[in-house]
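Hello Y.,

Per our agreement to keep a running log of every chain we model this quarter, I'm adding this entry. I've kept the format consistent with earlier entries: sequence first, then predicted structure.
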Amino acid sequence: MSLPFMDIFKEWASDYDDAVTGRNPEYKDVFSNYDFMIEEATKYVGKRVTEFGPGTGNLTNMLLQRELDVQAVEPSIDMAKLGEAKTGITFERGDFLNFNARETDTFISSFAFHHLTDKEKKEAIALYKPLLSEDGNIIILDTMFNSLDEKEQIKSHYDARGYHNLVEDLEREYYPLKETMKEIANDLGFDYQSTQMNRFAHLQILTKKK
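Predicted structure for the entry above:
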């Protein structure tokens, strides 16, 4: 994976926890119910788990509290420093497509999978499939849109409120459509389940078909 977002990670590192806890009003709706959402995501995780983009370590901490075997893979040095200090574990350097591959029960990511293009998303999921245990799954908690019309309406709404950084994110990042993610999952032999958690975020569970 190319890493055109490394400068953004650097900017986000010191501000990310303010955003997810609602202290940044521009991103309050994006991360509404954040703690609940990441806790819900952990309910579907197997014993061995690989987390991509752990960032400041919020989801990682919840996984560790469940006494799971966690492999945390983070491309940003700035993010990793904060996450390692918070969690007490070492984050491996890597990204969604370049990492120390191991057999695992679950691949999980929160608010990071959108850094991949749709083509790269499919490449990543295809890469994970042979590494998963028989009942393994992929868990993606991230912004996703039900339709292009919905995306444009949301952009217009927040542009009118003056939330230009958020609108810029929505235009730059590779936020997928739900139908695209479902199609990718089905093409690669996964059952697909998605639950909308707030106006932006969907909790997606991809489970290997028997």
